[in-house]
Design a protein that fits this description.
The chain is an alpha/beta fold and 212 residues long. The chain has one domain (7-207): P-loop containing nucleotide triphosphate hydrolases (Rossmann fold). The protein is built from eight helices and five strands. The chain is globular. The protein starts with 6 loop residues before the first strand and ends in a 5-residue tail after the last helix. The structure holds ligand Z5A. Ligand Z5A binds at residues 12, 14-20, 41-42, 72, 97-98, 102-103, 106-107, 147-148, 151, 155, 157-158, 188, 190-192, 195.
């Protein structure tokens, strides 16, 4: 990884405002002239985008939790090797809408898969690649779900029960409390203007007097 590069992940529950925050981040980085790419999981490469459809589209065949976990990691491995690592090598900043934390939150805390199994996949495939900064957008799941319901039909995972999303949220908050140096939490139950302002303040902090 080039010393100029930074790897940043954006996490949070459904409708917590990741896409909205990413627009603020992009416009801030463009304004500062910081070369970057924005990518996402599941997805980020043509093949991983096909895996995304398998994961999110509703189907008559039940997708088992273990299959789900393996599909997330299959897409992630493509994404890491073909997109994230090459971009970091070139000195670009990489902004990823979700990364490994999401597997611990959704497949671990949400579905109940043992953390040790997810840890095994992470150590095998992702090794020590980790975001330097993670922005956690936090809002009560009921609020996030209301926001995305207003947008249209829910996908396979969005259709889960509220308890599932409460476990996901609790995991993220616990993880952020344990890794304070990496995580920054923004309360996205606040107004759009406040969230935007807080996102800018966080960016100023992590970008500092960065120049290329
Ligand atoms: N998943 C997993 O299980 N395991 C994994 O390892 C990974 C992912 C990587 C797809 O992810 C699913 O995959 C996701 C986790 C799982 N589960 N589900 N369901 P995704 O990230 O693509 O999808 P998402 O979490 O459902 O994101 P989203 O629906 O795109 O929401 P968002 O990007 O966080 O929110 P938004 O689009 O910015 O905002 C939603 C709406 O609310 C929109 O109309 C905004 O204008 C509005 N909004 C946002 N902020 C505000 C505020 N502050 N006030 C008022 N209105 C607001």
């Amino acid at each position: 990884m080039s010393k100029e590069a930074k790897f940043i992940s954006i996490e949070g529950g459904e409708g917590a405002g990741k896409s909205t925050a990413i627009k603020t981040i992009q416009s801030y980085l463009n304004h500062r002239g910081i070369a970057h790419i924005v990518t996402r999981e599941p997805g980020g490469t043509p093949l991983a985008e096909k895996i995304r459809s398998l994961l999110l589209d509703k189907s008559d065949e039940t997708l088992l939790p273990e299959t789900e976990l393996l599909l997330f990691f299959a897409g992630r491995y493509q994404h890491v090797e073909h997109v994230i690592k090459p971009a970091l090598e070139k000195g670009l900043w990489v902004i990823s809408d979700r990364f490994v934390d999401a597997s611990f939150a959704y497949q671990g805390a949400g579905r109940g898969i043992a953390e040790s199994r997810i840890e095994y996949l992470k150590e095998w495939l992702i090794k020590d690649l980790s975001p330097q900064h993670t922005l956690l957008l936090d809002a009560p799941p009921a609020l996030g779900l209301d926001r995305i319901k207003a947008r249209g039909e829910l996908d396979r995972i969005e259709g889960e029960k509220i308890d599932f999303f409460n476990r996901v949220r609790a995991y993220y908050l616990e993880k952020a409390a344990k890794e304070k140096a990496r995580f920054h939490i923004i309360d996205t139950s606040a107004s759009l203007a406040d969230v935007e302002e807080n996102t800018r303040l966080w960016l100023e902090d992590i970008c500092g007097d960065y120049t290329r």
